[in-house]
Specification:
heterodimer; A: alpha+beta; three-stranded antiparallel β-sheet; disordered N terminus; B: mainly beta; 29-stranded mixed β-sheet; 4 helices
């Protein structure tokens, strides 16, 4: 794949002057398209993301339409260090009832989007993205595109027949996100804080692969969102009019009914990087959001007998548990978790791998989340007991 | 690598005659890595889109040709058939796979896959996770570079399925099991060929399986019936009959830590921790450790694991009869078994046809004996049983064939409409 700038310089020399010196302001070139209000599209696969009216380009930024609410999760899924802008919207007058435990039971027409993007290396080309998890790029209700590359936006919509996943891929000019149901491989280079670059393939899932994670009940095989559970949402967010708890905010705007006034009573996963939280709560939050949509007693990975839900324990959690069908994924290790011995635990081996037949999760990453591995390594090291 | 060259060479000669016109699949000797220099790399996008848009009842046909794929292909729609033009004609090859733990991943009911080849996947070849009425017919799954630890784990891998037919298929080179049916119910595995896998054919934690008419040759272990702990379903009820299980003497090239890594090279048929298994009418020859092994999880290296406490590791209700045994047992795998063989039978002697690790559940004993239905029966005179006395650290290994001269109630055949419809 050629970079956007390379394409332009080859074919559109006259534009070169306009682009020189700026770093990625390409979004300002096309005429400003009229804004589309957030809407529910009851059937079909719209060809462009814009038609949904949830997030769209305006003034060199990705902006949210009126009534579209951004949110974060306490501990998010790792996706090759990509940043994610999550939004939720419901048709006018609709709301969802609060509940603990399961994903909120949203009303018909709910649209959730997740935009995957990376900050770009200064002076680099569009394939050189930063491994920077700390900075916030979405601010004041918009995501300025100045030094950011948009990769893809995934739409989850609740229609009559259930949730559907519809993926859109951003073009290299960063002017449009088009329907892409068969996914793709996008070669990128991850640049660390020392300026060292490591090439990797960003894999955009196809529609079926969306179900690999989102069909978290292997009997019904129905697609559900994963993040919007009370325990993931119960945190603060910097809205453009101030910082507020997300559950409170969703209640204030009318999307959420019945949330407890006192949110200290609501379940709350730890932020995996929050050193004020206990090691155990951070590790379990990490396993919850990264693994438990498959590794639960009803998930597609129940074939392994391993559950990584917050309430799992003992052999079900992997302690002294022998693998079933891990193949090369055992790394020649005998137990899922050998307490006190991360270097003898299959769970750690599979997190440390980036090879398709060995790594976990099976899809959704091509790189190793080194900070996540460090967290889980410390957690296993802290465990007491022995497998004999 | 001493692959079964003769048989494969004979097949390869036929191919060019039928394909001369167009998109011929080049000849390839077994053990020679598939050449993808002329392969079609565009087709995978077409195939994936067809599978996304498939409707129940659709038959998706893949023409003759060699197709290179670099991602897992997925199907989530019920009632779909994927059909090639032959296991040596329609070749899907994942040698350059970049993403996905399987080649073809299916989560659907009423699924049929037939007449094509799945080659060189990074992980498993075909995985069908959940689903009722699954047919796999005339499929070849192979790691073309020969058997290696780096090969993918499973060839054909239905798991948590119900009503499963695997027939006329070939599995070669899997670093775990060539044909593996896990946690499933109502299973027929017939007329397949499995070679140079760690486990040729494996039935694990499954209920009601008939395994017949297959050839398992040159694997580490030919046919396995296993139960593993911590799974939602305990397995029982397998009939293994009319199979050829020969020369399964390939070194164990499985990954340490996997259950099959404990299988000694030279194992013909092995029952581990499973119950109600009938082994009859098979031709079992020249498996160097033993033609038949009956064992518990304790012998698979897991004796010290805590989960064994809530798991029944004892093989019970096992009946071996009317088989034709020849050779085997002369050169067992591993120092301990080698030493045991030499001690008991001398340097030129051989283990008897049936090896039992001797683990019996003390809690189920009534008056010092197991109830009849739980016994291990080897009913034919002349077929000897060696109890290696596992519970006592092999202190008193003994040939005690008379203790196993009993019969069990024959199991009923698996009733599977899919198999009856297909004939045999």
């Amino acid at each position: 794949m050629r970079s956007g700038l390379a394409v332009l310089s080859a074919g559109m020399l006259t534009l070169l002057g306009a682009l020189a010196g700026c770093s990625g302001d390409a979004a300002e070139q096309p005429a400003q398209l009229p804004m589309i209000a957030a809407n529910y599209i009851a059937e079909g696969n719209p060809e462009t993301l814009r038609e949904w009216g949830q997030v769209q380009l305006s003034g060199g930024a990705l902006v949210l339409s009126d009534d579209v609410v951004p949110y974060d999760l306490n501990t998010p899924l790792f996706t090759d260090y990509a940043h994610k802008l999550r939004t939720i919207w419901m048709p006018e007058g609709s709301s969802v009832n609060y509940r603990t435990g399961e994903v909120l039971d949203f009303p018909l027409g709910t649209v959730i989007t997740k935009t995957f993007y990376y900050p770009l290396k200064d002076g680099g080309d569009e394939s050189q993205v930063l491994r920077d998890s700390s900075s916030e790029f979405f601010q004041g209700g918009k995501l300025p595109l100045g030094n950011v590359r948009l990769i893809e936006t995934r739409v989850l919509v609740l229609r009559d027949a259930g949730w559907e996943a519809i993926p859109y891929r951003w073009n290299e000019e960063q002017t449009e996100a088009s329907l892409n149901r068969i996914g793709g491989i996008i070669p990128l280079s991850l640049v660390n804080e020392d300026g060292e670059a490591a090439a990797f393939d960003y894999v955009m899932p196809n529609v079926n692969e969306c179900a690999s994670c989102h069909a978290s009940d292997s009997n019904s095989k129905a697609i559900w969102p994963i993040g919007p559970k009370a325990r993931h949402l119960n945190r603060h967010f910097a809205y453009d009019d101030g910082t507020q708890n997300q559950l409170t905010h969703l209640s204030d705007v009318g999307f959420l009914k019945g949330a407890p006034d006192d949110l200290s009573a609501a379940p709350k996963n730890a932020l995996w990087g929050d050193l004020d939280a206990s090691l155990n709560s951070r590790a379990r939050a990490y396993l919850d959001i990264n693994c438990s949509h498959c590794h639960s007693p009803i998930g597609p990975a129940d074939t392994s007998g391993l559950s990584l839900l917050p309430d799992a324990s003992g052999a079900a959690l992997g302690k002294c548990k022998v693998p079933i069908a891990a193949g090369a994924g055992t790394g020649n290790r005998r137990w899922g978790i050998h307490p006190g011995h991360p270097d003898q635990s299959i769970l750690i081996y599979r997190m440390e791998s980036d090879e398709a037949d060995k790594m976990m999760p099976e899809i959704g990453r091509s790189t190793v989340h080194e900070e996540g591995v460090a967290l889980l390594t410390d957690w296993v090291k802290s465990m007491e007991g022995d497998c004999g | 690598m001493p692959f079964g060259l003769l048989k494969r060479a004979a097949l390869a000669v036929l191919v060019p005659l039928t394909l001369a016109a167009c998109s011929a699949v080049p000849e390839r000797a077994q053990g020679e890595l598939r050449d993808l220099s002329e392969a079609n790399t565009e087709y995978q996008a077409t195939l994936q889109e067809q599978l996304i848009d498939a409707k129940p009842g659709d038959v998706i046909t893949i023409p003759t040709g060699v197709y290179a794929l670099d991602r897992m292909i997925t199907l989530n729609v019920d009632g779909v058939t994927i059909r090639g033009e032959g296991a040596d004609k329609t070749i899907l090859n994942w040698q350059n796979q970049k993403a996905g733990a399987e080649g073809l991943s299916v989560k659907a009911n009423d699924f049929t896959l037939e007449n094509l080849a799945i080659e060189d996947t990074t992980g498993d070849g075909l995985k069908v996770n959940g689903g009722i009425n699954i047919v796999i017919r005339g499929v070849r799954v192979e790691w073309t570079g020969g058997y290696k630890t780096e090969n993918g784990a499973y060839g054909l891998y239905p798991v948590q399925t119900e009503n499963v037919l695997i027939e006329d298929s070939i599995a070669i080179g899997a670093s775990d099991a060539g044909i593996y049916v896990g946690q499933s119910k109502n299973i027929v595995v017939r007329n397949n060929r499995a070679e140079y896998n760690v486990a040729g054919i494996e039935i694990e934690n499954s209920v009601n399986a008939d395994v017949y008419g297959n050839t398992a040759i040159n694997n580490t272990g030919g046919i396995l019936v296993f139960n593993m702990p911590n799974l939602p379903q305990r397995g029982y009820g397998t009939r293994i009959y009319d199979n050829d299980v020969n020369e399964n003497n390939t070194e164990n090239f499985g990954h340490e830590g996997t259950p099959v890594a404990s299988v000694p090279a030279g194992t013909g048929i092995i029952v581990n921790s499973n119950d109600d298994v009938e082994i009859f009418g098979n031709r079992v020859a020249d498996n160097n450790t033993a033609n038949v092994i009956i064992s518990s999880l304790f012998s698979a290296g897991y004796a010290d694991d805590e989960q064994a406490e809530n798991f029944d590791p004892y093989p019970e209700g096992i009946w071996v009869y009317n088989n034709t045994f020849s050779g085997g047992g002369e050169s067992p795998d591993g120092l301990e078994l080698k030493a045991l063989k030499t001690m008991l039978f001398g340097p030129t002697g051989a283990f008897p046809d049936v090896l039992f690790d001797g683990h019996v559940d003390p809690a189920k004993m009534v008056g010092g004996k197991l109830p009849d239905a739980l016994r291990i029966c080897v009913s034919d005179e002349g077929v000897d049983v060696l109890n290696i006395d596992g519970p006592n650290g092999n202190e008193e290994p003994r040939v005690e064939s008379d203790a196993y001269r009993c019969k069990l109630t024959p199991r009923k055949p698996v009733e599977l409409a899919l198999a009856e419809a297909a004939g045999s």
